[in-house]
Amino acid sequence: MRLGLKFLSVVTSMAMLLILLGGALVTKTGSADGCGDSWPLCNGQLIPDPLTFETVVELSHRLVSGVSGFLVLALCVWAWISLGHIKEVRPLAFISFFFLVLQALIGAAAVMWGQSDAVLALHFGISLISFASVLLLTLIIFEVDQKLDATNIQLGSKMKKHIYGVILYTYAVVYTGALVRHKEASLACPDVPFCSNGNGWLPVDLNQWIQMGHRFAAVLTFVWILAAFIHAVKYYRHQKNIFYGWLTALILVIFQAVSGMLVVVTRLQLELALAHSLIISFLFGVLSYLTLLATRHTHN
Fold first, then answer.
1. pLDDT at 114 over 70
2. Among 29, 54, 82, 229, which residue's CB has the most CB atoms within a 10 Å radius?
3. At which positions is heme bound (predicted)?
4. Cα-to-chain-centroid distance, residue 176
């Protein structure tokens, strides 16, 4: 039974990742209207005709989201019943399913009635919370047989501030990145790293301010994670989960920055744009794991 729960948790985590990538693919290929304004049907049909590229992308995203919903529900119920005695399981199960339903409702509302760019930008962030919750459930399931021991954590107040601060700030930066996509501001500043537009380096319109604001916020994310990693090197090398957690976060934020620059340089090459979304999903997952560890800490 425990083996089956582990298998389901891994499959569900992968499915949630596909939702994130699928949503990014819909946005980046302009396929949001691929099924018209009908939901859950596509152009008023179960199997739409004709099947354009945009329709296939949007319909595939809906199908993956639907299947993932059943997987998340099954995982949450099974984990609730089998591991409900572990304090984090029931809250994570609730958050996983609640935010999955919420992102589905926002997506459906956007199809039928339209939404502002600000609200649509929340869609990715909400999906990210659901993914991170499922990922944490998976890690807890693998902890049960002590193959992944993360229960004896000792943290000082400074490290806790780093962990809580970085994940909240990174989530805000994710929102600015989603806003860049939905405002179609990805190439508002086609040069890296500054916005050279003939009038100096300062942005001159709203889209350029959104783009440069996201870049500045992303740089601060790197600086903060680097500072947290240096603190972990000095004081937490013996706590492998903390040390390697920050090391992984630092590597991912570097790849995230490089992929972001390449997206601009290559003028929105699709594979790089999807990699950019994938990396931030992994980064948020690692930061969520560190947050889980911080809630278990005992004072030094």
1. no
2. 229
3. 214, 276
4. 13
